[in-house]
Design a protein that fits this description.
heterodimer, A: 290 residues, mainly alpha, 11 helices, 2 strands, B: 313 residues, 76% helix
Chain lengths: 290, 313
């Protein structure tokens, strides 16, 4: 059972899925790091982005990878608008309210999708859907390889933006000390909305990389949201490096768990990690604050 | 306390009288489902409204109660009335488990919401995977109508049952408003550090609240099984129960006695109206619940009961 020729493809598969998980989790952790709220609508946003990619492909014939420059800005705008128009207005300065509002948004988005698209699971066909390439003893789907490279590329861009640009400096300033940031002339509400927008833009990119090898239905976000939470909690809330490492780790755990315990029970491994980390080390592996 | 109890008695009398006078099955079902929603909201309100701990996974307790009720009857052949006690006990035990784990490690706010959500999801997957729950196929409770078997020919019997639970939950809520324990719980909600400084044990207080809350949620689960005689993992541990419980309490007004009743009634009325307007469409109810939730938090964060009280003052 533990032969290399079985384990290796499984680990490889896990890493490719994990990279996309990491991208989704990066968005979540950015939003948490800056706004100090948990975005319960993150999975629903991914679902919306997946449907967008799906519709672009089936209606206009746009390849998922070419849809990136459409879906990513669109998700950014959606995030910016949601933060400015709904979440900020509803918060009344209380975190519990934000928690409830993002939950409400998730419920609305998911069930609107159910109304419009019914609960059917949909997939797309591309020229490269069935193409595989050999890596060592394993064959891996091209789409998964692209997802792996693309997700890591997006993560690199995001980390560069946060580390090197003026916007990134403003984001970090607000995350650390929003009162101080306001005093030196940073528009905090704008930075909040930018962060929320970038968080959803990550989800948009993840959707483009995901769909060629995946599917979409109204509930698809639910699975991802707990996985993304697990990664964020594991890596430490607000930590980018943690989200990256955590994402890859969770991808491998899921893949190996599925191999050994079967599809549905394999998921338990993720939740076991989630609950254990949350209880015993809520600051995560890379988090500094307790 | 006395005034609250009198009002609760009056409420019970009015509902019972309505159920006795109304003849249409549609209205009896409406009364029954509103009370069921109210029971869920009342249960959530004990922990969320009075304790300030927002659970997103009350389906966990609902499912534990429901599965205990179903399994006790189907596999163990226990009388449903007895199973009811068992169901409440199992749900309360789940409350002890989740509460002890999360409060011991000081989880609150978003973290508590997350961990409850995760526990409900773990139990859903377990219920699909293990044998004694009937797996994904679910469990059927055989139809044998008799009061001794807790299956009633008319909706009125079930209304009596759920009214009993709801009144018990109301009495416990009234007790929270006037007792020492309730005062401690609200102190922990408002400022945990200050509460600890004056000698309140936050861990034990919150644990007490989650156990009460879980027990009543479990009774709603057991009630569901008796009425619909069918249970599967997504009915038991799915998100819609958690959502209905918390939205009902928040819409009505958290931390109030009558808020959950008002909220559940408002939601069910809304749900019925949309069903009449748009027909049976999947998801439409939850879309409305979500919109109402966002709108309430945005415009009237204290809920319907909050508006009423402001007028009154």
């Amino acid at each position: 059972m533990l032969e290399f020729s079985i384990l290796f493809p499984s680990v490889l598969n896990g890493l490719t899925t994990g990279a996309v998980y990491a991208l989704v989790a990066l968005g979540l952790t950015l939003i948490y790091g800056v706004l100090h709220i948990i975005n319960f609508a993150h999975g629903a946003a991914l679902m919306v982005a997946l449907y967008a990619v799906y519709l672009l492909k089936t209606w206009l014939g746009i390849d998922p990878y070419l849809a990136l420059p459409i879906v990513v800005p669109a998700m950014f705008l959606l995030g910016y608008a949601l933060q400015r128009g709904v979440i900020e207005r509803a918060s009344h300065g209380r975190d519990e309210n934000i928690l409830l509002v993002t939950l409400g948004l998730a419920i609305v988005l998911e069930n609107l999708a159910l109304l419009v698209f019914k609960s059917d699971t949909r997939t797309i066909e591309t020229a490269y859907t069935l193409t595989t390439v050999p890596i060592g003893p394993a064959f891996i789907a091209v789409s998964k390889l692209v997802a792996f490279v693309g997700a890591l590329g997006c993560a690199a861009v995001l980390m560069w933006v946060v580390a090197r640009t003026d916007l990134g400096r403003a984001i970090r300033a607000v995350a650390k000390e929003k009162q101080g940031a306001r005093l030196v002339g940073i528009d905090v509400a704008h930075v909040y909305a930018m962060s929320f927008g970038i968080g959803l833009a990550c989800v948009g990119a993840a959707a483009c990389f995901l769909l060629p090898a995946y599917y979409v239905n109204p509930q698809v976000g639910g699975g991802f949201v707990l996985v993304a939470f697990t990664i964020v909690v594991l890596g430490g809330m607000g930590s980018f490096a943690g989200a990256l490492v955590g994402g890859l780790l969770i991808g491998v755990v899921e893949s190996l768990g599925g191999l050994m315990l079967g599809e549905s029970l394999g998921q338990i491994g993720i939740f076991a990690i989630f609950i254990t980390v949350l209880l015993f080390r809520p600051q995560g592996l890379f988090g500094a604050r307790a | 306390m006395k005034r609250d109890l009198l009002r609760i008695a009056a409420f019970a009398f009015v509902v019972a009288a309505l159920a006795a006078l109304v003849d249409s099955g549609v209205w009896l079902t409406f009364i029954m489902m509103s009370l069921y929603g109210a029971l869920l909201a009342l249960a959530w309100n004990i922990l969320g409204g009075f304790g300030g701990q927002f659970s997103f996974g009350h389906a966990l307790f609902f499912g534990c109660g429901a599965y205990a009720q179903a399994i006790a009857q189907v596999s163990l052949g226990i009388n449903p009335w007895l199973a009811l006690v068992l169901a409440v006990a199992v749900a309360a035990a789940a409350g002890v488990g989740v509460g002890a784990l999360s409060f011991r490690y000081g989880l609150k706010g978003s973290y508590f919401a997350l961990v409850t959500l995760a526990f409900a999801e773990v139990f859903r997957i377990l219920a699909v995977s293990v044998g004694f729950t009937g797996g994904g196929v679910g469990l059927m409770v055989p139809l044998r109508e008799s009061a001794g078997n807790l299956q009633f020919g008319s909706r009125r019997g079930y209304i009596g049952l759920v009214l009993g639970f709801a009144v018990a939950a109301l009495v416990v809520t009234a007790w929270l408003r006037h007792s020492r324990f309730g005062a401690r719980l609200q102190a922990v909600r408002d400022n945990e550090d200050a509460a600890r400084a004056i000698g309140v044990d936050p861990f034990r207080t919150k644990l007490g609240a989650i156990v009460l809350s879980a027990a009543f949620t479990g009774s709603a689960g057991a009630f569901y099984v008796q009425v619909f005689q069918y249970l599967d993992p997504s009915i038991a541990f799915g998100a819609h129960v958690s959502v209905e419980a918390l939205v009902g309490a928040i819409v009505g007004g958290m931390g109030t006695l009558w808020g959950p009743i008002v909220g559940a009634l408002a939601l069910h009325t809304l749900a019925e109206l949309t069903r009449n307007l748009f027909g049976q469409m999947p998801g439409i109810n939850l879309v409305i619940y979500g919109v109402v939730l966002v709108a309430i938090v945005m415009f009237v964060p204290r809920g319907i009961a909050g508006i009423a009280r402001r007028r009154h003052d």
